């Protein structure tokens, strides 16, 4: 872990529970600090489970940001050139297994491709059933509504980067996790009842490694900030790892530092302490 300011070259920020407060907004002070960092030549990236479509509300705040580690490492996106640099897709067979598991548990299916966020309309309007009410407004606005998801995955084979299954209870999620184990996917718990499925070996950490290789930045010169299980691997490999005050205990235990929570400018604290 570096001890001096100005030695870090890249800052990776998780979004939900980290950069975004509970109202799903980026505090103005944090936006200004990020802009200052980018003007100084630091690569600030979002390292998020979200897809490109789900960033639409924040692109103004990200002006000047060059890269995104999106879809939990499944996609490195160049915001300036508006094109993917790397992507990793699930197989058709894996997608079919995920849809079958969702049907068994009456779970909501959320499909992410490079440009699209896909779900069934009947689920979008009942997200409270899956402990996802805070996202409903966004999903209503940005989702491509597809009622026949079996047909959708068949028609978009090799394009699907991640599938999220949102369950009606944690017990239901655990049944899905056990059902899907051993099928060559990376399964991560997310939100209250969510299960994220990515190709094997694809995490935010694998995305950071790919991006650092492209930019010729050593991992030791990176800082990662997060709060949840899907941040675990990237926090383990970054030069400096910071857990938000609202992070799970398991995340706090493996991080170098713990800062304030996402409603009290924890990200700003990291920026001021280690960059500015």
UniProtKB/TrEMBL annotation:
InterPro entries: Cof, HAD-like_sf, HAD-SF_hydro_IIB, HAD_sf. SUPFAM superfamilies: HAD-like (SSF56784). GO terms for molecular function: magnesium ion binding; phosphatase activity. It comes from the Bacteria. GO terms for cellular component: cytosol. PANTHER family: HAD SUPERFAMILY HYDROLASE-LIKE, TYPE 3, PHOSPHOSERINE PHOSPHATASE. This is Uncharacterized protein. It comes from Selenomonas ruminantium.
